Amino acid sequence: MKALLLIDIQNGFCPDGNLPVPDGDQVVPVANALIDSGRYDLIVASQDWHPAGHGSFASAHPGKKPFEMGMLSGKPQMMWPDHCVQNTEDAMFHPDLNASGIDFVQQKGQNPAVDSYSAFRDNDQAALTGLAAYLRAEGVTALDLCGLATDYCVKFSALDAVEMLPGVTVRFIEDASRGIDPAGVKAAIDEMRTRGVTIIGSQDALA
Ligand code: VGL
Ligand code: ZN
Question: CA–CA separation, 78 vs 70, rounded Å?
Answer without folding.
Answer: 6
